[in-house]
């Protein structure tokens, strides 16, 4: 979705601002080895959404909200020379959105629902250029099948602490790799930032990853 467009590239971009507190997103952006500096600046964007929104709309709009909320925190000089990146990830099972668990019991319930079944992971990515008002928003969806786990294995995984800050209560990049049977689609989308999509979006703003 091209939300608003007033130019195709800018030579005045001096930094990328990552509007995220997620260590995974920070590592993934760092892995691109961009030639411009990356500033990490997360904000407190409202993450509530209307019940009827489909998953793609939820993640795209939340990515956009995060980017716009971080924009508010920048000085006017920085605003005019920054690209801001926001992202949001949700897990969807039987049309039900599963965000981050509120506690260990919630994580156990979520993993019990996911085990032995296929679910969808959606990540929305927003890149905005406040200096020109240009905003690009897209999403990717990846299908993930989780192994049948059993109560004891689920309990041990939750006790590891890994599920607690992650959508769907698992992290495919960590111990969660051992409970996933197969994936269909972009792996990095599951981790929280689809790098192939992101590089195409940065390209639109004149930032070439390679
Ligand atoms: C499914 C899955 C999710 N996750 C993580 C990515 C995100 O950090 C988190 C989804 O929550 P988000 O609300 O998308 O992100 P966040 O609150 O962690 O960070 P911010 O809003 O500041 O950018 O779940 C994994 O790390 N691995 C996985 O396999």
From TrEMBL:
CC cofactor: a divalent metal cation
GO biological process: nucleotide metabolic process
Keyword entries, A-Z: Cytoplasm, Hydrolase, Nucleotide metabolism
One Pfam family this sequence matches: Maf
List of catalytic residues: 88 (proton acceptor)
MF annotations from Gene Ontology: dTTP diphosphatase activity; UTP diphosphatase activity
EC number: 3.6.1.9
GO cellular component, one term: cytoplasm
Cellular location(s): Cytoplasm
Predominant subcellular localization, coarse grouping: cytoplasm
SUPFAM superfamilies: ITPase-like
Record carries keyword Heme: no
Record has Cytoplasm as a keyword: yes
Enzyme class: hydrolase
Chain positions of site Important for substrate specificity: 24, 89, 173
InterPro entries: ITPase-like_fam, Maf-like
Catalyzed reactions: dTTP + H2O = dTMP + diphosphate + H(+); UTP + H2O = UMP + diphosphate + H(+)
Top-rank lineage group of the source organism: Bacteria
Family to which this protein belongs: Belongs to the Maf family. YhdE subfamily.
Task performed by this protein: Nucleoside triphosphate pyrophosphatase that hydrolyzes dTTP and UTP. May have a dual role in cell division arrest and in preventing the incorporation of modified nucleotides into cellular nucleic acids.
Descriptive protein name: dTTP/UTP pyrophosphatase
Organism annotation: Paenibacillus taihuensis
Organism lineage string: Bacteria, Bacillati, Bacillota, Bacilli, Bacillales
């Amino acid at each position: 979705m091209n939300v608003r467009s007033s130019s195709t590239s800018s030579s005045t971009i001096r930094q990328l601002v990552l509007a995220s507190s997620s260590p995974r997103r920070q590592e993934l952006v760092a892995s691109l080895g961009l030639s411009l500096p990356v500033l990490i600046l997360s904000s407190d964007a409202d993450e509530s959404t209307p019940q009827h929104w489909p998953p793609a709309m939820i993640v795209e709009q939340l990515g956009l909200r995060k980017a716009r909320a971080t924009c508010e925190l920048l000085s006017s000089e920085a605003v005019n020379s920054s690209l801001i990146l926001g992202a949001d990830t949700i897990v969807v099972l039987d049309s039900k959105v599963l965000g981050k668990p509120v506690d260990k019991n919630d994580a156990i319930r979520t993993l019990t629902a996911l085990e032995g079944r296929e679910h969808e992971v959606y990540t929305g990515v927003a890149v905005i250029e406040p200096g020109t008002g240009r905003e690009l928003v897209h999403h990717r969806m990846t299908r993930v099948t989780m192994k049948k786990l059993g109560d004891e294995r689920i309990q041990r995984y939750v006790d590891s602490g890994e599920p607690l800050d992650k959508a769907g209560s698992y992290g495919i990049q960590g111990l969660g790799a051992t409970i996933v049977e197969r994936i269909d689609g972009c792996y990095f989308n599951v981790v929280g930032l689809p790098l192939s999509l992101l590089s195409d979006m940065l390209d639109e703003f004149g930032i070439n990853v390679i």
